[in-house]
Amino acid sequence: MSDFDFLRLAVDIGREAGDMLLAKRPARPEVVETKSSGTDVVTALDRASEELIRQRIKAARPSDAILGEEEGETGGAETGEGRVRWIVDPIDGTVNFLYGLPDWSVSIAVEVDGEVVAGVVNVPPRGELYAAAKGGGAELLREGVPGERLRCNAGVPLARALIATGFGYLPERRAVQAQVLTHVLPVVRDIRRGGSCAVDLCSVAAGRVDGYYERGPQYWDYAAGGLIAAEAGARVGGLNGRPYNPGLTLCAAPGLFEELHDLLAPLNPERDA
């Protein structure tokens, strides 16, 4: 399969999972489990979404590996295409989903030999699906409307930048993130906290915010959104030349990326209290 074939399959699966979640979401979804803390929740529909996605991938691509937030990594075999792995977050922004806020998403990325080649972030409450194939640019897709080519905002200085961020679930992490924020907020236009890493990265791609940084997101949170942002012209990375990672993920157009990096680096934002 080509990268665009992978993308088409990911789009179809992401749409189906999003439609299922919209149709089955009760007035207040039940929390069935917590993970890293009492505020890090899992709902029954997180699990149902991941199971649906896994079933559809296995039906189409039985030899591929799947890494999902809820069930971990399964399967995978070397094929003539290389090792293919799907990176799945069945609901990114589960607390938003729980409370009926619109910024939650289904995130699906496809790796070939360790490189992300296709990514889909479906935001069902907004009727928006973001998609990118490596080297093919990024698009925003809405039903009944031609795809919109995405470009991040360029030439925005730090002082006029609208910056998205997020906060972890552990109190000791939040304490440091609050300290870092007190240094960032006075020198930027403003801060936005949406509650979904994948949606925040797509917001950079769409020019709805100028940049994003956060400590703590996992690979399934940023794999698809990171490709979408990069294909829209943003730079995505970590501190001091490292790739983006759970320690810190940074995203902005070149120029602003460096300004934001140089503001954050001396603050040691990868630590916990």
From TrEMBL:
Look up the EC number in the record and give it: 3.1.3.25
Q: Which domain of life is it from?
A: Bacteria
Kindly list the GO molecular function terms attached to this UniProt entry.
Answer: histidinol-phosphatase activity; inositol monophosphate 1-phosphatase activity; metal ion binding
Quote the PROSITE patterns the UniProt record gives.
IMP_1 (PS00629), IMP_2 (PS00630)
Q: Keyword DNA damage, does the record have it?
A: no
Q: Which Pfam families match?
A: Inositol_P
Give the signal peptide as a residue range, or say none if absent. none
Name the Gene Ontology biological process terms.
Answer: inositol metabolic process; phosphatidylinositol phosphate biosynthetic process; signal transduction
- Which top EC class is named for this enzyme in its record? hydrolase
Pathway connected to this protein: Amino-acid biosynthesis; L-histidine biosynthesis; L-histidine from 5-phospho-alpha-D-ribose 1-diphosphate: step 8/9
Q: Which UniProt keywords apply?
A: Hydrolase, Magnesium, Metal-binding
Cofactor(s) demanded: Mg(2+)
Q: Which residues bind Mg(2+)?
A: 69, 89, 91-92, 221
Database matches in Gene3D superfamilies: 3.40.190.80, Fructose-1,6-Bisphosphatase, subunit A, domain 1 (3.30.540.10)
Record's catalysed reaction(s) = L-histidinol phosphate + H2O = L-histidinol + phosphate; a myo-inositol phosphate + H2O = myo-inositol + phosphate
Query: Entry's PANTHER family?
Result: INOSITOL MONOPHOSPHATASE (PTHR20854), INOSITOL-1-MONOPHOSPHATASE-RELATED (PTHR20854:SF4)
Q: What does this protein do?
A: Catalyzes the dephosphorylation of histidinol-phosphate to histidinol, the direct precursor of histidine.
The UniProt family comment states: Belongs to the inositol monophosphatase superfamily.
Protein name (Swiss-Prot/TrEMBL): Inositol-1-monophosphatase
